[in-house]
Amino acid sequence: MRVLLVCLAGLLVCLKTADSHSLPQKDYDTDSNKHDITDPLNDTSGNNSSSVPDNFSGIFDSSTTRFIARSVTRGGKKESMGIYAYKNGKLKMILEDSLAVSPWSSKSRAYLGNKDGIYVYDTETEKLEKYGNLSDNVIGIAKENRSDDLYILTEDHVVYKVTEEGTKKVKINEAEHVEKIALDWDDNLYYIGANDHPYVVTSDGAKKIEGLPVNSTRTFISRPPIKIEHGAWFMCEKQAYIIYPNATSEPYVFNDQEKLEHEKTVRALKTILSQVDNQPVE
């Protein structure tokens, strides 16, 4: 079994672009007989998510809460080993059967998807509570930037919009065979379909994103981790792209400052994940 470290912000292992602006090569894949680690970082430091972060500076402050979703793969199926909160150098399990955490949450609240619905975790009081009355098995979750409305992806690969404090859900019929979901800063909904290709949901239905490699694999989608006014972040075979609401895309080229921030991310990840494996859990 292998340990796979994936930065939720979208800077995947060995991330590189097609030219001289590629990020430094880093190999995070190491042999292990313990578990897979995915989605190590979500910033819920209480920053107002209505403003796009300029870069990664500050997300590794000691007062910031990060989340680590641990899983083990048995017989080709990923099984949850729980969501852990990491803050001030301490690790704490907060939800046993969860793999989904909403990125870039505001108001010091993080939303977690679980096999029996949605939970909310207050990073200041460190308290976990059931959110709303839904009982779906939630494997993906994303919060809108300008409201407290959520989008959830259920175990049967159906997407719903959740409103009214988690008590009402509406199926997004345009999204079919969904594997992963994400919102951009304008709250446009994107998803990766069963063919590992991204789509954007528009008023005219779901549109396939153009300009990307055919038969792509090892894909990842999220809000942009860098200051991009429109569009979502998409990773495909170690190449970063910005995908737009009009269903177009373009490769992203990293500047020198972003490379430096990536190195900070690498060091912080190594420190946190070392403690995950070597320190006792509270």
TrEMBL record:
The keyword DNA repair does not apply. This is Uncharacterized protein LOC114250290. The keyword RNA-binding does not apply. Residues 1-20 form the signal peptide. Residues 24-38 have a biased composition (Basic and acidic residues). It comes from the Eukaryota. Keywords: Signal. Residues 41-50 have a biased composition (Polar residues). Residues 22-50 are annotated as: Disordered.
